[in-house]
Amino acid sequence: MHRHSDLPKAFADLGIEVRFLKALRKMEFSKPSEIQVRMIPPALDGHDILGQARTGTGKTAAFGLPILQKLDPARRLQAICLAPTRELAVQVSGELKRLAEFANLHVVTVYGGQKIATQLHQLGRKPHFVVGTPGRLMDFMRRGALDISNVRFAVLDEVDRMLDIGFRDDIREILSRITGAHQTILVSATISDEIRRLSKKYMSEPVEIDVSRDKITVDEVDQTYVTVESCDKSRLLRMVLEQERPPVCIVFCNTKAMARKLAGRLHDAGLNVKEIHGDLMQRKRERVMDLFRRHKINVLVATDLAARGIDVSKISHIINYDIPADPEIYVHRIGRTARMGERGTAITFVTRDEGKELTNVEMLINREIPARDMSGFKPSPPREQVKEPPPPAPPSRYETPVVETAAGAPIKAQPKTLGSRFRTSRRRRRL
Ligand code: AMP
Q: How remote is the CA of residue 57 from the centroid of ligand 1, in Å?
């Protein structure tokens, strides 16, 4: 039997009502996270908010709780939330539904890849809050199935990603269709000039909240890198997985093709692995996410876009099979582990040509990432470098003249030595 004294008092102190405190108790949120402490009171006061926070900080409840609390159960659609991907839309609406469990409020999710008819039917059930990807929301608005002109709350989640994906025009169009007085909350891991321009245009005197500093990579993540040749990466990965035996791990690749190839190899090697990337049908992606969420798969091979907003608690390891070119993406990736104060491990594979990318990450996070000791790993022997030159072609009138070095010696490829291949690249990176 629950008593009111069990309710999370720290949330009550922020102004959250009992009907939501009950949900928080059920979700086992006992203490608000930093963004929740800082966002809930001004949001309840009706301020527009520009929040800099990444996934994993508790941002969903930070905007979700105050908005849900201010919704009138007797009125229909009053709030929308735009999210860059289906996965994030499903995750955000899932969290809002859990928060609203005792509040008699109805949340609906719309996103591409699922039947229009099903979502139309759900919209017909007069939701209070609609969460969706911009493209699908626009689609419903054009069909006249969704009228957002009178919503009182608009949230834009992961705005940086929405702009990256190219939802620029849709976002502007959606925001300009809200004609009544409304409160806008914008959340993004990074705040670019373009996002500032958006906020100037569509928000009024926003309160700025930044929880990205200092915690740009959570201290609880144990971060290391390993220098490796591209051709050795999958063998190295198997060795790392063997050593670490991660209970819940995401391996990030930079491309869909690589994710597909790697997942196939790991699968063939007998590992409990699945892949998630943009080439998979929506239904398959949902199935994979569900298995991963229930910890039925240990290793998920993913691309960044497909993995946006993956909401799986207790991810123990992030492996950057490919280091991303954009250091912000590194931060996004490793932010998926060590959530809410738990420890996590991030291991990044770096080829000899990628020292610059690693340095960029270190500059962004303002710390040096140590090399991981993989002394037990035997790199493949260097490939045959010096091939017999092809027989000289018969002389031709059109042949370009042969250029010789100053000494007149032919230029030969230098065979690579193991030493030079695995010499740590830190010094060179610094130069
Ligand atoms: P978010 O950044 O909103 O994606 O949240 C990251 C994860 O933390 C989600 O699994 C949330 O359910 C969880 N979470 C959010 N706030 C809290 C809290 N105050 N206490 C415990 N878990 C939380």
A: 6
